[in-house]
Sequence to fold (313 residues):
Amino acid sequence: MRHLIQKILTLLLTLLLVSLLTFAAFNIIPGDPAALVLGTEASPERVAVLRAQLGLNDPLPVRYLKWMRGLLTGNPGKSIRYSVPADKLIAERFPVTAALAGIAFLLILVISVPFGVFSAKKRDTPLDRILNTVTMINISVPNFFLGVILIWVFGILLKFFTPGGYVNFQTSPSRFFSYLFYPALAIALPGAATVAKFLRTSILGQMDLDYVRTAYSKGNSDNAVLYRHVLKNAMSQVISLFGMILAEIFSGSIVIEQVFGVPGIGRLLIASISSRDFPLAETLVVYIALVVVAANLAADVLLQAIDPRVRVA
Fold:
């Protein structure tokens, strides 16, 4: 319990630092939101009036405290560009990004675990070297480039989907998920390659330990030792990686949503930054940070639950 309380306090401190850095960064960016909203033809008087209405003339500490109070009370302010509450915009877009992240995470699990186990079983063989090469390529290639390749192959050549033809869930659930599969795959491939490589290394490290030799001495087959004993211990080390993988999923979705035309919070974040919509952009960054640190906390709690050695430590 004490460890969990420490983790929660660390989470809160992390979010506070993220909010401070985010607020400072967006207020350093050149550009006047009021001038962008009114356009280049607006008179200085109209710009000054709008700046006063938006509270942009207040000192930075005052604006930060107002924004934080709004975040804590569920009212982070109104979007400058869309003139609607920021939390309403996020609530509309977040389910799309959550579905995209969920599909990507499932793909990472489905691809990485069999791939990592198979690669470990084929250690030091020509096939293992080929698999390692494929893994390194997927880790090295940016996900937006993978997205372009998937659009070219599956969208243009094979015509499995229509690039840019996003369909929302209310219109057609099946077409919604079938379209999200391809951007999710572009996000998942680098993450799956990372997890597979880490899992392979973890399995091979476990194979040299005493309990594995004891299991073999009792007459267990290779598969029995691998799947009944080694894989569980190896996966306990991989679980701590999933928190970082989720962070990569959300960071990757920011660009991938733009590539595939998916109206999620990543695309909304890019639009808010380009239009200097500070209340919306700042709130989006904090919400994304909250999801990431919460995922890391969940991974840590899950690791303690399945691995008694961590609880003892």
Remarks:
- Residues 94-312 form a domain with the MetI-like fold fold (CATH 1.10.3720.10).
- The two ends are 13 Å apart (CA to CA).
- Residues 121 and 128 are 9 Å apart (CA to CA).
- The chain has a mean pLDDT of 84.
